[in-house]
Write a structure and sequence with these properties.
Length: 456
């Protein structure tokens, strides 16, 4: 059990614009005139590492050494610290709120924000990490990564370090410091780098398919990270965790003999849960990191894989709850993480490390084949007799519409591609041409049924 946790990194002030109905009707005579109009209330909340430290405290039930406010949030200006601005409105038929508009960011007109100067007098960063067994660094690319005076010191070589990093990747003094053991004194085998797959996709010349099948995303990732020179520094990481929305993750252990594990929701593809959930929030990756930290706190580095699964489930729990709003405070409804109880199941499979010069997946890998190797006939017999087989629980089974389900990778990819075309067309408010899809097949082969289900 780890007893001392240290957190540092980028800090922001999150401003929530809460929209509510007029307090009285237009004909009321007993209230002020402004009460007859839509009410807008602006409430600040600690963001970035301030939020992350609170989440880690909730997840681990331990004290966390982290950045400390020495001024009131509403007194900190955009010239001093970055402000994020969002608008909230009620989730249908609930008392909780969701983000309905990201209004953007405000910060200093030029140069570094005062927050990143050690001499600032409104937020104090911890510096002495001596004795800390778990260190969490949140690098969102907003100044901390180049503020060398704020980097932690006196780090033990035994410490586990979670380094959560955002685009642009592999940039700044912090990345170089983390990679240089003589400067940071961090054991590279104890560093866990956490990134989102979309940040890898933003790297020039990198191509990783999204939401077609788990196999295609995983094989593209292996192909790119092993062959793309722009990702060479990521490929050297001993422990690289790549989150894929809330639906899965890739755990990559680098080096010449590196291995790669895919953790995935067998019932959804990338982005599936997000499209099913009405709430939109900030702080998803902080929630993931907090629950990862909790698992590492309990089990050490051996708790990494389970921590990733818990982190993915935690993001979903946060998203489901949305925000709770009072006249003076906005907070995530499920920030205590008490509802992360195994209700979301993630399976795992080793990703084959095979590819050629031009093809990331020359053998057309299927999780179905890997999970059912040598026992396919027994599984088929069980399914015909009972309508189920436990082995198939870990095989991707994607449902389109209300009745169409498939476990075949080729069908999943074909249907997903068509569904994406339809979704993109519907999202386009002013399409230039109608969307035309031709479906060919023998009479009675299920053409109409399939098209109807995909459209749903």
């Amino acid at each position: 059990m780890i007893s001392k946790i240290f957190a540092t990194g980028d800090v922001a002030i999150d401003w929530f614009e809460v929209i509510s109905e007029p307090r009285v009707g237009p004909d009321s005579d007993d209230r002020e005139n402004w009460d007859r109009y839509t009410n807008i209330c602006r409430i600040p909340a600690p963001g970035g590492t301030l939020m992350l430290a609170e989440m880690i405290r909730n997840a681990t039930k331990q004290e966390v050494t982290g950045p400390r406010l020495v001024a009131k949030l509403e007194e900190i200006t955009p010239e001093q610290a970055i402000h994020s601005e969002v608008s909230l409105d009620r989730i249908d038929k609930t008392n909780n709120y969701t983000i309905v508009q990201n209004r953007g960011y405000s910060g200093p007109p030029i140069g570094i924000q005062q927050l990143c100067l050690k001499s600032n007098d409104f937020i104090k960063y911890p510096s002495d990490a001596s004795g800390a067994e778990l260190i969490v660094i949140d690098d969102t690319g907003n100044g901390f990564r180049n503020s060398v005076d704020l980097f932690p010191n006196n780090i033990s070589e035994k410490a586990i370090v979670i380094y959560k990093v955002h685009s642009p990747l592999m940039r700044g003094a912090l990345w170089r410091w983390m990679k240089d053991k003589s400067a940071s004194h961090i054991d590279p085998t104890k560093i866990i780098v956490v990134i989102n797959i979309d940040d890898i996709r933003r790297v020039s010349e990198v191509s990783i398919r999204s939401g077609l099948s788990w196999e295609s995303t995983a094989c593209d990732f292996i192909f790119q990270i092993r062959r793309q020179s722009r990702l060479a520094e990521l490929a050297d990481c001993s422990n690289l965790v790549v989150t894929i929305d809330t639906d899965g993750a890739i755990l990559y252990e680098g080096g010449e003999q590196g291995s790669c594990t895919l953790l995935y929701d067998a019932k959804r593809l990338e982005g599936g849960f997000r499209r099913e959930t009405s709430a939109k929030i900030m702080g998803m990756t902080q929630g993931f990191t907090a629950l990862l930290a909790s698992s590492l706190s309990d089990h050490g580095i051996e708790g990494l894989k389970e921590g990733v699964k818990q982190g993915l489930a935690g993001m979903r729990v946060l998203q489901q709850g949305g925000y709770e709003v009072s006249p003076t405070r906005v907070s995530l409804a499920n920030i205590s993480f008490e509802k992360v109880d195994g209700s979301f199941v993630y399976h795992e499979v080793k990703i084959p490390m095979r590819y050629d010069l031009n093809n990331p997946d020359p053998g057309y890998w299927q999780i179905l084949d890997q999970k059912t190797e040598n026992i396919a006939e027994n599984i088929a017999e069980n399914y015909l007799r009972t309508g189920k087989d436990k082995t198939l629980d870990s095989v991707p089974e994607i449902q389109f519409g209300k009745k169409l389900k498939t476990i075949d990778r080729m069908e999943i990819e074909s249907y997903s591609a068509i569904q994406r075309l339809i979704r993109e067309y519907l999202d386009n408010m002013k399409p230039e041409h109608p969307l035309c899809i031709a479906v060919f097949g023998a009479p009675g082969s299920g053409k109409s049924f399939t098209v109807d289900e995909i459209e749903k």
